Amino acid sequence: PAVGKPLAAHRRPPVGRNPHYNFTKSRRKTEYIYNSAVSCYNDFSLFKTIFEREVFDMKYVCTVCGYVYDPEIGDPDNGVAPGTAWEDVPEDWTCPLCSVGKDMFEEE
Description:
- The protein has one helix and three strands; from the N terminus they run H-E-E-E.
- The protein is 34% helix and 7% strand.
- The chain is rod-shaped, with a radius of gyration of 31 Å.
């Protein structure tokens, strides 16, 4: 613009407002979205940690021989990988010591 000539009305910042207002508003919105995403991730991580703790803290004991199934260890010799929750153990799985089925196990 020419020296001394005022800016056109549509290009002037509103009176009493920061000329970078739209930028800061946009930045605040971006920060809000980012913080919300981080918060959701943290909440999910907390949920996941609690869920995993509940799953891995629960052990199952054979009522016949006393064998303890620990989800953290699994039963690799019989095809159950470490980290397998009790609900995911196949129905045809049997106790490695006395060969009874899952129905003979109870929570420890």
